[in-house]
Amino acid sequence: MADKRPIVPLEKIERAILQIDGKKAMLDADLAELYEVETRVLVQAVKRNIERFPEDFMFQLTREQFKILRSQFVISSQWGGRRYPPYAFTEQGVSMLSSVLRSRRAIRVNIEIMRAFVRLRRILSSNVELERKIGELERKYDDQFSVVFDAIRQLMAPAEPPKRQIGFRKERN
Question: 59: domain range?
Fold first, then answer.
């Protein structure tokens, strides 16, 4: 019977999933760390099986994308010293990695990564649904609550200080 406990914390996997050019992807260095192999070993295995990785499964970041990514994370030690920008693997590319990295760990890690991608998709779809429902409520009740919103805005507006008169005052006796 297989061990059911995850070998990698879900949070660690979710942190490694990035949004790059509108695609959810994971970088080669992050995947190598999860699989407990060197990044160069992972990249070599992919290059030996490059026909399994079309561009919608894997792509190499441009130098500009890599520069932006480094600046966002501010930590260059993880990717510092690289001679080339990293490769990014989409969900399908990650799935294909288990066929080129033939270890028990690679299979187990891939299963956990697939579950993380599914979980993120569920979260995103529930957020979209919630946003749609809020929009409907705003449209439905906008007229009914406009008086309340107007009153709240008036209460929030800063009070105008009393105006001082300009000029001299003539004292009256």
Answer: 10-126
Q: Is residue 25, in this structure, part of any structural domain at all?
A: yes
SS (H, E, C) the chain: CCCCCCCCCHHHHHHHCEEECCEEEEEHHHHHHHHCCCHHHHHHHHHHCHHHCCCCCEEECCHHHHHHHHHHHCCCCCCCCCCCCCEEEEHHHHHHHHHHCCCHHHHHHHHHHHHHHHHHHHHHHHHHHHHHHHHHHHHHHHHHHHHHHHHHHHHHCCCCCCCCCCCCCCCCC
Q: Indicate whether 22 belongs to any domain.
A: yes
Q: What is the pLDDT of residues 84-101, one digit of tens each?
A: 889 999 999 998 888 888
| Residue at 34 is within a domain | yes
pLDDT band at 145 (very low <50, low <70, confident <90, very high): low
The model carries a pTM of 0.64
Domain membership of residue 151 (yes or no) is no
CATH number of 67's domain: 3.10.260
